[in-house]
Structure to design on (88 residues):
């Protein structure tokens, strides 16, 4: 068995025929579903853009919650530290 046959898993001609048949069948299914190669590419791109934008929106909400809590926690921490410093 040659290196090419071992890599492809079969003879190059048989692999080519299999790829042609599978590509044709997938093309029929995609046509029936109304999908196009560009539609798939744009769909994947839009998915990652939405994920990117959602991630930063979540990060922005995290910062908002952090600052909202810090307005109360940080002064309370310093007040507690000052009161415990006077006792010690």
């Amino acid at each position: 068995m040659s290196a090419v046959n071992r890599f492809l898993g079969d003879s190059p001609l048989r692999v080519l025929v299999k790829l042609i048949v599978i590509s044709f069948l997938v093309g029929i299914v995609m046509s029936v579903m109304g999908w196009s190669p560009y539609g798939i590419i744009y769909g994947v791109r839009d998915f990652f853009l939405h994920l990117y934008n959602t991630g930063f929106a979540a990060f922005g909400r995290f910062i908002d919650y952090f600052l909202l809590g810090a307005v109360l926690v940080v002064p309370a921490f310093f007040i507690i530290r000052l009161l415990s410093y006077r006792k010690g």
User: Anything to note?
Assistant: The helical segments are 3-8, 12-33, 37-87. The chain has a mean pLDDT of 89. DSSP finds three helices and no strands in the chain.
